[in-house]
Amino acid sequence: MSVAFRRESDEEHKEPKFEIPMVPGPNLVTPRGKALIEAKVAELEAAVALETQEEPREVLRRELRYWNTRRTTAEIAPPPEDGVAGIGTRVRIRMGGKERVLEIVGHDEAEPAADRLSFQAPLAKALIGLEEGERADFNGRPEAIEILSVERLFSASTR
Question: Which residues form the Transcription elongation factor GreA/GreB C-terminal domain (predicted)?
């Protein structure tokens, strides 16, 4: 039989499985973010132990490798000075005539729909280092954001 008609294994035709890409830069987290990573690792370890089929188990293992790396590299962000926007703060702003309350957190803790922004997000970057009463340029508009208040999400002792 010609080699051209021989069926090769199914494995040869599958797309390669790459690792889940890591976010570049430091893995700064809040205490809540560190706890969320720990919980995710525990959840995935339990799921891997319970999974009986190889393909779904390998998907879970891949995700577990990602979260184990995130856990290993996680650093609790240093607390910002009182009244200064930074990782682990809740910032009330006025932008475009509307008030909004945002939390600046680590990447894995971010939920933009819940106004919880990664410190690497453009809006969070514009706020970091600012204090109540200051204004920030944003999206090409000068003084587009006014900082109304800044409060820590966690006390310095919980870090």
Answer: 82-151
